[in-house]
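Input.
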Amino acid sequence: MNIPLINGRAYDFTQIIVNVMGVPIPSVTKIDYKEEQEKTNNFGGGNRPVSRGHGTIQPTASIEMSMTDIEKIRDIAPNGSLLSVPAFDIVVVFGNPQSPKKHTLKNVEFTVDGFEGSMDDTDFTMSFDLVLSHILYR
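Output.
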């Protein structure tokens, strides 16, 4: 019995292209971003909410990449410090041929700089926490 792929091809990591400052970064092994917003029920008369309040939207992000690409960013950074890189955008392209998508992390800055490595590492990678203003999902 031949069952068709009803939903087509799934989005997967091999389709992702991450652009930092307009340059594709092929060594990204992990990217994580999200936005959270506090939403609270407000009460008045009775025992049920009468309205809902919304707090600020807090975006968070992190990226993991190889030292090869980290050093390329350091080459353009003032003093070679990632902490000195001015705000930039990260564009994540999902290259699914059926339905390509693009997310943009806006006004990103590094909040940590450094290095970590250990014996038998064949590729030095590091994860960086990022600060950003917001995320565009289209």
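The chain has a mean pLDDT of 93.
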